[in-house]
């Protein structure tokens, strides 16, 4: 079950995550630009107005967003079960070489940190190798803004167009978009549009960013 506020929150967060305003997202999906305006969310008499299933389908299609990810942006638990506990590792820890898929070290300062519920709720759609991180600086702009929370699946195949986070033994922590999958690595477009090839041999770990929200 979900509420009127949760659905509109999901639309707003999806728009922000993809770099649009609510009206910009509507326009991109071929809808009336005013479809998601705040004035359209409540009738003059105060009755809640809901977005149509057609409009939601269109914005999910144009943003390539999975239904489960969309629901989690609104804090909606799609499975009806409690969200799994997902480790929250800070960027400094990851940049220091920590393998997020390895056994958690006893005494590690991140051991008791867990991801926010809106992020953890999506982990059920992927697998046990998921972890989260919080972007606390501007190093990955404009791809991800300061303040974003990321959910990363570290156990999946990468394909062209995937947003990824990885640790290279040569270059450290790297974030980018997969341009081409090579036999022994990946060609990436980095946040500043720099093109970089990362080899599998130099990669300690790599994960696909399956959800980003603020």
TrEMBL record:
It comes from the Bacteria. This is Peptidase S24. It holds the Pfam family HTH_26. InterPro entries: Cro/C1-type_HTH. Residues 31-51 are annotated as: Disordered. Residues 11-72 form the HTH cro/C1-type domain.
């Amino acid at each position: 079950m979900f509420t009127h506020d949760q659905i509109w929150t999901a639309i707003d967060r999806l728009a922000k995550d993809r770099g649009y305003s609510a009206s910009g997202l509507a326009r991109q999906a071929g809808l009336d630009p005013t479809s998601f305006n705040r004035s359209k969310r409540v009738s003059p008499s105060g009755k809640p107005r809901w977005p149509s299933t057609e409009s939601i389908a269109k914005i999910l299609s144009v943003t390539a967003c999975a239904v489960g990810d969309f629901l989690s942006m609104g804090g909606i638990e799609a499975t009806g079960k409690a969200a799994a506990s997902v480790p929250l590792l800070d960027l400094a820890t990851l940049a220091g070489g920590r393998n997020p898929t390895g056994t958690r070290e006893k005494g590690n300062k991140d051991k008791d940190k867990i991801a926010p519920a809106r992020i953890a709720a999506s982990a059920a759609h992927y697998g046990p190798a998921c972890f989260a991180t919080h972007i606390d600086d501007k190093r990955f702009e404009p791809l991800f803004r300061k303040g974003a929370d990321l959910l990363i699946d570290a156990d999946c195949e990468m394909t062209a167009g995937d947003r990824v986070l990885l640790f290279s033994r040569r270059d450290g922590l790297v974030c980018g978009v997969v341009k081409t999958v090579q036999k022994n690595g990946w060609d990436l477009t980095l946040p500043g549009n720099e093109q970089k090839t990362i080899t599998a041999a130099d990669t300690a770990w790599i994960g696909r960013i399956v959800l980003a929200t603020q």
